[in-house]
Every structure is written in structure tokens, then in C-alpha cells.
Amino acid sequence: MPDFAIVSIVSNKGGCGKSMVSSNIAYQLKRQGVRVGILDADVDSPYLSEMVGAAGKITLDSQRRMVPVLHRGVPLVSFSLWLPDAFAGATMAGSSHERWITDAIEHTAWGNIDMLIVDLPAGTSLDEYVLVKRVGGKRFLGVIAVAIPNVPSGLLRVHGTASFQAIRILGVIENMSGDVFGRGSIAAFCKSKSLRFLGSIPLDARIRERHERHEPDVPEDLREPIRNAAAVIIESAKIKAVAR
Amino acid sequence: MSEEGIRQGLKERAATWIINRVAGLANSKVDIARLQAIHNANEGRISRMTLTDINKSFYFRVKDGKLQLLSGAEKLDGGFDLTVDTLVSMASGKQKRMDPGTGKIFSVEFTPIDAVTQGLVRIWGEAASNDLLLFAKAVYGSIWGQLKTEINATATAAANGTNGANGHA
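Output (C-alpha cells, whole complex):
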């Protein structure tokens, strides 16, 4: 069992901003003094390392453990960094897929981290939800769900999967809220299910512009949901945060 | 013998030749003892490769600076399952594909990592991903060039009715 706490970031569909939220939560935790690592567990289409501009490749240490790429002071493992060459996509057999995620958690030299943020593949496949819970054991704290306001039913599926597997939803972030996709539906859903609503990140061109420059941080004035997520995680993990 | 039996026999023969050549080339071209020392791989973990379409397994381990083929194993640490076709594609470094628009067959480069990411190889066992990475980085690059050459020469020779590279047929 890992000696660090684990939180998964989930959404029922792709394109909700899961990788953006994952990296931002990790960087926020780091700013608050938490020793954190990131695992991009999206084997089919890993995007997080590209988004944050991480370069390099996963190597093996003297114990044959994976050595993460250190980017912005945060150890990062992604399938795209694990592969020796560039690749276009994977359709790995389920058991190989599970093996890779398990090895990435258990057989990686994460260093002295307190917390691992796992960016799960989109969807509500039980495999990944349950796998990370099983590998994390008692150190698995739960999930942060990311949802967009025009598809509140997606959150219903996340809620259903989590309930069925007794996985705690630590909180929900509404992403891309505004005139295009609407606003408010995710907060209303959270209220109806007694879930903790962490706030809305608006559909803001500054986020895209930053991503194009491989600067994943959400602008400071839009960061409240991220700060709330970090606070919930710290509270759940009972980590003593040290403000920097 | 039935046509199916002949096909199975040919597949087994091809697979056995490839496995033996991989072991031979790895032991002659790769400093396995050095890799063992660098990665603390001295425990002699036993892996099993199962060829699912002919229901045949090969057992091997890295020990005393050599890649050793075993006749069997009582305890397994991990392994991988694949078909003979996939093994041949990996060894020859080429995979045949069909253009869905024109129906034309063409070849693309193909590596063990491609085989895993395409779901054609199922890996299992503790830290199998780590071992696969070590194999791909430290062994594949050193032996596959020659293996590809030998296989392609053998295939060409077979098509021409002559002996292949080094007399392997």
C-alpha cells in the first residue's frame, strides 16, 4: 500500500477540463506546502504532460522503479512520458492498462510525497475508479468531480458510480461556466445530492491562452474553486499545510 | 495431419526460432550482467510468454548475466500473452495494415511497445510495466536490428526457394 494519500480527479466525459483541474489542484497543494505528485492515468489519450509543458522521459532507478519527470518541482508520471517514442494513442488490453496504472502508483520512486493526484481517464468505467481505490487502500481519500454545466446528467453518472462503489466525492467543480454552456446547473445538482460544490471556473480565454504557452495555472482571480478543492483535500488527508 | 495441424506446427516452429534467436542475440549483444547490476535485477524472476493461438508457453529468467530459457516453472512472477502473428510482427519490426478506403495492404513499423499499446500483448505480474520498459529501452534497441534483418532475409529466401540468413529457414 502506498505511503501517501491519493485523490482521483474524474469526469463522466472528455473535454471537461479534468487535466487542467488536476494540475491546478496539484500546484495549489504545492503552494500550500503539501509534497505532491501527479499521475496522468489516462492511458488512451494522455494530455496532461503536454498541457503543462513537461519534457523528458520516465526512466528506471536502481530498484527498477519508474522515476517520474520532475516538472515545476512536482514529480509527474504520464503514459506519454513512459513511452520511449511519441505515440498517437493506445487501445491497451484492460488488464495491461490496469497493470500500468498499478505499477505507476506502486512501483514508482515518488519520493517523499504526502499526496498523489491521479488524473483518471474520462468516463465512469468502474475499472479505473475501483482500481485506484483498491491500490490506494486506506490512503485513497476519494474523488474530485469536474463537470460542465450543459451536461449535469454526466455528474449523475459519476455520483451513481461513486455511490455504488462507496467512493467518496470530496467535491465538485463546475468548469466552463458562462454564456456558452450555461451556469448554475452543477451547483443545483450538488445541492440536490448533498455534494460539496467547490465553485465555478468560467469559460475564459485567458485559460486557453495560458495553455497555449504551456502555463497551466488558472488566473489568480478565477482560482477559488481550485483553492477550495485543495482545502478539502488537505482537510480530508489531515495534512498540516504550511503556507508559502 | 490436418491443414490446421500443419498451420499450428509451422507457427510453433516460427515462434520457437524467434524465441531462441532473441535469447541468443540478447546474450551475445547485450551486457545483461551490467543491466542486472544497474537495476538490482538479481532475483531471477521467472516470466512466462504464452502464445494464445497455439496454446504454447515459453519460460525464461534473467540470471547470472544471461537470459535463460527454461523448460517450465513452478512459480511465476509475471508474463505476457500474445499470438504468434504478433510475435512475428514484433520480431520483423513490421505490421501489415489495410487502408479501409482502398483495401490496399501496407506495412508500418512495429515494436513491442506498439504491440502493448494496441492491446495485442497482455502483460501481467508485479511491476510488469517496469520490466517492459527496461526490455524496450535496454534490449530491443540492441538486438532487433539484426533480428529484423535475419527474418526479412529468411522470408525473402523462402519466397525465392533458397536458404535464408545464416541458413535459418
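Helices of chain B lie at 3-29, 32-38, 84-92, 112-117, 128-160.
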